[in-house]
Amino acid sequence: MKFRFLTILAAFAIAVSMFAGAASAANDIDDRYHKQKVVYHINYPGGEGDKAYLGAMRNIQNHINAVGKENLDLKIVIHGNGINLLKSAKAAGKVQTAAANLKSQNISFSVCANTLKSKKIGIDELYEVFEEDIVPSGVAELAHLQAHGYVYIKP
User: What pLDDT does residue 16 have?
Assistant: First the structure.
């Protein structure tokens, strides 16, 4: 009888610890993401239908949705062929809609001055780019942000 009682007690203790572990795991999922500082790097062509740019912006939106914009300091650095994202966004369409959506969530697009100069592009040719969005060098900006704790992502 004593053995049976101890067996039941042990089984009960295991069940309680498993339930507590499961509850803790559920809380870990809810609290999985805390404050994040992230920089997304876009320096590639968009491809047919700007598919790569749309995919990158979809990834960024998914990141915002998972972490919550209140927990996220997210920047996008654009240089080289990535400048075409903002050129494409100048025309109405899916790229503009996606870029506008990100901008409405206070996501900044930093644009490389070297790229603008080498490609002879004026900011008036780009979607919603202002003087304060221009950085001297896209790659230097990436290094600067990483040195200040931003995690680097290249979608």
Answer: 47
Closest C-alpha to 89, from 101, 80, 81, 97 = 97
Q: Which two tokens stand for residue 73?
A: 């300091």
Give the tokens for residue 111: 């644009």
Question: Cα–Cα distance between 98 and 57 in angstroms, integer?
Answer: 6
Mean pLDDT of successive 10-residue stretches along the chain, which has 155 residues: 52 50 47 91 97 98 95 97 97 96 96 98 97 98 98 97
Helix spans in 31-149 (H): 51-67, 83-90, 94-103, 113-118, 138-147
pTM of the model: 0.80
Distance CA 66, CA 151 (A): 16
Tell me which DSSP letter residue 150 carries.
P
Query: Which residues are registered as beta bridge partners of 76?
Result: 40, 109
